[in-house]
Amino acid sequence: MRSSANSKRYLYIGSALLAIVAVFFIIGLIWTPYGINSTDSASKFIAPCAEHLFGTDNLGRDVFSRCLAAARYTLLVSFAGVAVALVIGTITGLLAGYYGGIIDKVIMVLSNSIMCFPGILLALVAVAIFGPSLYNVIWALGLVFAPTFARVYRSSTIELLGRDYILSAKVMKVNPVRIMFVHILPNLMPQILPAVIIGLANMTLFESGMSYLGLGVQPPAASYGKMLADAQSYMVTAPWLIFFPTLMLVCYILGLYFVSEWVRTSVNGGSK
Amino acid sequence: MHNSRRKVIAGALMLALSFSAVSCSQDNGEAQDGAVYGGEAVVGITQEPMIFDPHTVEAAGDKEILFNVYEGLYKYDSTGTLNPCLATDVVISDDASEYTFTIREGVTFHDGSELDAGDVVYSLNRAAELIPELSFIEDVTDNGDNTVTVTLATPNSEMLSYFTAAIIPEDSGDTIGDTRIGTGPFVFTSYEAGIGIVLTRNENYWNPELPYLDKVTFKVCADMDSGFLELQSGAIDIFPYLTTDKSSQLDPAQFNVLELGSNMVQGLFLNNAVAPFDDVRVRQAMNYAIDREEIVNLIMDGAGLPLTTAMSPVMGEAYDTSLDGTYDQDIEQAQALLAEAGYADGFDMTITVPSNYLVHVNTAVALADQLSAVGINATIEQVDWATWLDRVYAGRDYESTVICLTSDYAPYDVINRYISTADNNFINYSNPNVDEIITNLPLTIDDGERISMYRELLGYMTEDAASVYIQDPYSICAVNNRLTGYELYPMYVQDMSTVRLATAE
Amino acid sequence: MGNEVRTVFSKICEFVLTALLVSFFTFAAFSIIPGDTARVMLGPDASEAQVQQLRTELGLDRPLAERYGTWLRDAFRGDLGNSLSFGTPVSELISSRLAVTLGMSFIALIIVILVSFPMAAFCSRNPGNITDKTLSTAGHILFAIPPFALSMMLILIFSKVFHIFTAGRYTAPGDNFGAYVVSLLLPSLCIALPKIAMTFKFLRASMIEYSHSDFVRTAKSHGLTDLRIMLRHIIPNSAVSSITVISLVLSDILGGSLIVEQVFNLPGLGRLLLAAISRRDFPLLSGIVLYLAIITVILYFLADIFAAVIDPRIRDRRAA
Amino acid sequence: MRYKGNILEVNDLCLSLSNADGAPVKILNNLKFNVRSGEILGLIGDSGSGKTMTALAVSGLLSDFAHVDSGEIIFEGEDLVKKTPKERRLLLGEKIGVIFQDPSSALDPLQTVESNLSEIISIRDGDKSKGHERILNMLKTVGFDDPKQIAKRYPHRLSGGQRQRVLIAGAALMNPSLLIADEPTSSLDTVTSMSIMQLLHEMCQEMGISILFISHNLNTVRNFCDRVMVMKEGTIIDADTSWDIMGQPKSAFTAELLMKSKLDPHALGITRGEARENAASVLTAKSICAGYKYAGFTNDKMNHVVNNVDFDILEGECVGLIGSSGCGKTTLVKSILGLIKPSSGIIEMNGRIAAVFQDPVSSLNPAHTVRWHLAEALRASGRKMTREEQKPYFLKILEDVGLEGKHLNRFPHQMSGGQRQKAAIAMCLVQEPAVIIADEPFSALDASSQASVIKLLSDINANRGTTMLIVSHNLLVIKAMCSKVLVMDKGRIVESGNTDEVLENPKAEATHALLKAGKYAV
């Protein structure tokens, strides 16, 4: 009951946090106080100050400018990756859950295999086949994350199959594809939204992890994950290099999370 | 910064040391008398050791450890001087085709067996098969009087440095990678993958004064950063190959930071067979476009020597100092050259960098920034090391790359990759004049003549702007003050025999 | 009874199929990506001849399909072969690293359970009060900080500010078990914290739901105290419904430990995995992947068993 | 010793519930009634009238969102409103027992019957061995033949009736002076609920327990309670002995409630759906066998729930299908609808078939509006209509089923159970089916909604000539609507024929049992 008042607060805080990221994203597209990649040996490791709000990094680049510019890659990689994962996961998960039997078995064995398979290796393969573009890495990431979504979809689909409204759709002889995508899918949103949020967070991390093998965002471009990975060497001398990208990531993930919480409670709260 | 075989011509080394900023002189005063024996030391390494057979070992990270376990007839010291080791003396024939060594007496292997001429003959024959540089050896003869004579296929006066090859017990070749029996100051005690290597004191070392420590551990660290944390926490005592931003964080009261110029050539290597880098004007323009000093300051905190051409000035007489400053930054000149070559508006290029070398990645970032001033739009493409080796180095399928070339401490080893037919001429450099000089060099006996040939060759290469040479980075090592006596070598060596506790613990 | 045998049998079949597929993917990946073990081992200065020689020694000159066939045959016999680049048996390499990865995962799981259950129980009693709000918000924020960044911050705090922890100081369990556990505590905490947030959130919701459930109402109508109702009814039931989440958390923890051990410089499976990939060491990589698959399957299996032990409905469903 | 006089007196009780925005909403309004010692007091009303809140307020199990604004609840001479939560909890264990509506989830699923019950004893006296005996005895008292077996079982392996018995045993173990029974039978079938009520009646007489019996069904209450109160919008509007209240209701509301619950065809204006002359058969089943597969070790085995069922339904007919729960009704319906494949037999259909299901909560897709549902049904029926044509058509259909135009854009959660069932029926109408199969479409609705849905289906049958198959355990409904009835027992059709003939002159044992239970309840 009272959760509805709470959930409004979720919406406000969440939107505020996302607005910060959005503002960074938009400003970053138009203008940055310093060149994103302009290196300068004279201004290395300057702590946050009036000229450099977020300080400078090991190559003398302005961290604030890079935080502005990084928003686009972080958003691109996480959203596009999750979108790919979502599309693949949705289709396979619904199929497995709806039909069950041998289709289910095959899809589950495949998804288990992908889950056991090192994602980094998959990204390497994608790059080897299609060349090292960011988009290929996104495809690979999407594939790596797809089984997670497929699992969520599958189990929730099985749960919904017994509901009367699905039975009545079957009685009406509605085409199975339509049942899956029009009748079942919208009802999976409460389960899928948190999974998407977690997926976005994990995607960002995974992308930064891949820079160990030179995959993901290529320098000098930056994503928050990559900025973090690069900052690891300087965490003692220049903690601001960790702090600000982390702050941006927290804004982004927490914002999404709160908004999804609002969506979830307003969907569930109503039906209860 | 990675990999090297490095043997030093004794005379040339003094030059090299002349610009080693902080050498290892700090402890020399008090050490000899009040020497402390016993104790342990932990050395941080960032590469997993792989091969322990001294004749097949390739990785610098392995060699620098095995330096303490195996010894050759001759051995370098930290000044780059070749000293007699398992041999006490050598006599070189007048035509430089026969080397006769006298074997040191009273040397025992770690398994207790005594070193004799048979071991030397066996080892040199095995080395001649396995090490390409030693394939010059035609014959090894045991003269019976505790001397061994080596006959070379072609006369070569520079061969002595190759006799640092390890001497191992006779017929132990098949098992040496596992038994690891040598004559060095330390005994190889254990290796655990991912953990490290433990060496213990060789009680029967032929030089009774050495070593000092009872136990040395080479500990594998995931990377520079975690190793550095361990250094600061005291889990590691000695950590080589530091960067300046790290070494400058260290408390001087607790750590002794050593720096020494190394014989490496870092550059933006251009594939001379690919447009637009097949045009000498483009290559020259790029050389003019960059500010080497700035890059050294940016990436290395100044701990590097800017380079004009393919050879580091540490190579001494072979290097032509008159070339210095040829390619000082000159944006106008660069733009003029580009316009002349038909690229007035610049062009797009890709720099392929091995992602595991942060220095090279950062250098590429700085280069891309500087090149943009003349309209060259450089995109960076990171690849993993195995891919780099396969695609860039072996496959030559790339436009440009940032890497550090390493070579033996010998001018010939530095330049022989630029012969157009060389296996490792991965930049596809080709100049008939250079080819001719490189072919004639080993056949030339006269030192002075060779030096002028080297200078002529460097002149051609500088004019051709074979690639964009950037710097010779310094090697930096931090040593915890509880230890003393550590000596930094201008090559990949971690000599633990002279390291000792500063005070008894 | 027969049904259970059948279930186990079909599970094993599924697993074998999965393992086969994964190893085939690995094999296929290695045939596609550039680079080979010999060249990586020898480095750039080695001559072509040397590389070829090492390739022959390692058997890399044989066709890939043949190598895969051999590997598969041996793997079925339980022999994962020797690592190409380390030269030692793969199973030896892996088992020495398992202590780190499994130990860390186990400690992390214990932390997650020990913290999230009491916290959720406490918060679910008065949802919406100040403690609940504080803890929930803290949970949300912890959840949003990437474990990678969290690890760095914790290292910074514990080793730089408090000087009570050393990154990379690892003691093998055989040497000193206490020191082993201590050395894994902080990394485990880094893995556990975001998962605590996730588990806590789920448990809290489920406990609140159960505290409004009919059987709790019955228990209340029987005059039971709140504490007794919490311990006897709400917590066990929440545990059952959180099993899926916890088993998801478990596989996340396993994955997280692979990342965190990088930051903490611990000799675990994750680093071995990266080494195997960057050295193109097929037997080693396949071995690791196989081990990880086995561990994952066992974990899910244990979760299933645990669920069946405390929930009679699941027992019956399986029997039916 | 039992307390003499009024065991419970509720005076001017006002209670409000904070809604989503935190604003209070009045639920109970100056509620005033009393329970005499040793009597069974019935409390009836539609859903939302405040019955359950009354039960919770008296028992002290109100949620945090509800609070008593004014008034007093005097139990055995003490005002409960003034007591601390701890004192009230002690009272709950000692003197007030409660049993709730839905027995399916009222027992902890992780614990056996015995351990569910033993906690009642262990909080009073710690002696477990004695407790064991007492539990077995009590289980026997509530009608279990082998209490030892039942004690070891887990709740999910008990039927609804058995679970309710266990709960009653639990309440009885406390030996309370007041037992509050909140719709204890409404989710059980007629045969079972009759036996449960008999059990409560016995307990009242033998143990001297006063019972506050809450129900939405007047029929259930009148045979069972000494006095009956009718509740509407938080106040008691009518109270009298059950004889009087059924005979001469004082308020119009009670009269209406009474009328609806009797399901008098004349009063409701419904007629039985008869087959037309020379009507062709619409739905024919020939020796249907159906059931569920379960995995055997060597091969899959079939568990037959429906065995050799034959029937023939003619055009325009309204046929009832009755039987106690577990007789295979639902499985038969599912196989007719094509949701499960019969293992043998033939189903012949002449025209489209549409279905209305039992549970109004899940009968509509929560993610979509009513308009979408109708459009989907239209699409499924294969007819094409432009958006402009659709709207008036849908409005007409909604009007036909008794909904308003504003419902067109509502989501399921914005409507009541009755409205949702009507929307589900509207979906059927859009499909213009030959047959509508309704599987227990009324049982989850309160009396008012029930009556209106029955009327609706009957009208559709009469006006549109749509053939109906009504599945129900409520004989009144069948009597009112159906001209033909099929009686099912243990997977077979044991009796069929004209409704009056079958119900007045039953031949099969199962029909007898149904009728007996029905009479008591009716």
Explained architecture:
The complex is a heterotetramer of chains A (272), B (505), C (320) and D (522). In chain B, strand 4 (87-92) and strand 5 form a beta hairpin. The two termini of chain B are 36 Å apart. Chain B is α+β, with helices and mostly antiparallel strands and 505 residues long. Chain B has helices spanning 10-18, 28-31, 60-66, 117-130, 176-179, 224-233, 244-247, 280-289, 292-300, 331-340, 358-371, 385-394, 411-415, 432-440, 447-464, and strands at 40-45, 74-76, 82-84, 87-92, 98-103, 137-142, 147-152, 186-192, 196-201, 215-220, 238-240, 255-261, 264-270, 304-306, 348-354, 377-383, 400-406, 468-480, 483-484, 500-501. Chain B contains 15 helices and 20 strands. Chain C has two domains: 1-85 and 279-320, no CATH class; 106-278, MetI-like (MetI-like fold). Helices cover 80% and strands 0% of the residues of chain C. Chain C has 14 helices and no strands. Chain D has 522 residues and is α/β, with parallel strands linked by helices. In chain D, strands 6-7-8-3-9-10 form a six-stranded mixed β-sheet, sandwiched between helices. Chain D has a six-stranded mixed β-sheet with strand order 15-16-17-13-18-19, sandwiched between helices. Classes of the chains: A mainly alpha (272), B alpha+beta (505), C mainly alpha (320), D alpha/beta (522). Chains in contact: A-B, A-C, A-D, B-C, C-D. The A-C interface holds A 2, 6, 105, 108-110, 112-113, 115-118, 120-122, 124-125, 127-129, 155, 198, 201, 204-205, 208-209, 212-213, 225, 228-229, 231-232, 235-236, 239, 242, 245-246, 249-250, 253-254, 257-258 and C 14, 17-19, 21-22, 25-26, 28-29, 32-34, 128, 140-141, 143-149, 152-153, 155-156, 160, 198, 244, 251, 259, 262-263, 273-274, 277-278, 285, 289, 292-293, 296.
Overall pLDDT score of chain B: 82
Which bin fits the share of residues in helices of chain B?
25-40%
Find the CATH topology of the largest domain in chain C: MetI-like fold
Tally of contiguous helical segments of chain C: 14
CATH homologous superfamily placement of the largest domain in chain C: MetI-like
- Whole-number total of structural domains of chain C: 2
The topology string of helices and strands of chain C comes to: HHHHHHHHHHHHHH
Which structural class best describes the helix and strand composition of chain B?
Answer: alpha+beta
Quaternary structure type: heterotetramer
**Discrete helix count of chain B:** 15
**Which architecture name of the largest domain in chain C does CATH use?**
Orthogonal Bundle
Low-confidence stretches of chain B: 1-32
Report the helical percentage of chain C: over 70%
Largest sheet of chain B: 8 strands, mixed
Structural Rg of chain B: 23 Å
Largest β sheet strand count, sense and barrel closure of chain C: none
Strand residues, percent of chain C: under 5%
Low-confidence stretches of chain C: none
Strand-residue proportion of chain B: 15-25%
